[in-house]
Amino acid sequence: QVHLVESGGRLVQAGDSLRLSCAVSGRTFSTLAMGWFRQAPGKERVFVASIGWSGTKTDYSDSVKDRFTISRDNAENTVYLQMSSLKPEDSAVYHCAAAPGYSPAYAPTKDSLYNYWGQGTQVTVYS
């Protein structure tokens, strides 16, 4: 069983930066592909970013590309989401997720491909 715990979410002003963390335990972290998803009230959960187990392959949704950066520290069993130039529409509960890493470049964007999920951390951006 893989256990994921997100942290770092808080209330911030538009234009600010914020870094989310997701600590992973229960399985060799370096074999997992990791993703970040978000869900706003009344809306479906959507893909934000993903990273392969080697860290060399990343993918982003169009809405966050060039503003958010996903990274991982395999020694610390942690994946990060660095968010900059935040907008009110970025407000949501952010969840990290883990999937078996079939290859170093495997970084799925579909939530159905992830087996494990964290409880989420709330990010609220005010204008």
Topology at a glance:
Layout: E1 3-7, E2 11-13, E3 18-25, E4 32-39, E5 46-51, E6 58-60, E7 68-73, E8 78-83, E9 92-100, E10 116-117, E11 121-126
Parallel strand pairs: 2-11
Antiparallel strand pairs: 1-3, 3-8, 4-5, 4-9, 5-6, 7-8, 9-10, 9-11
Share of helix, binned: under 10%
Based on helices, strands and strand pairing, what is the structural class? mainly beta
Termini, distance in Å? 40 Å
Rg over CA atoms, rounded to whole Å, is 13 Å
Fraction of residues in β-strands: over 45%
Shape annotation: globular
Give the topology string: H per helix, E per strand: EEEEEEEEEEE
Largest sheet: 7 strands, mixed
Average residue pLDDT? 96
Query: What oligomeric state best describes the polypeptide chains here?
Result: single chain
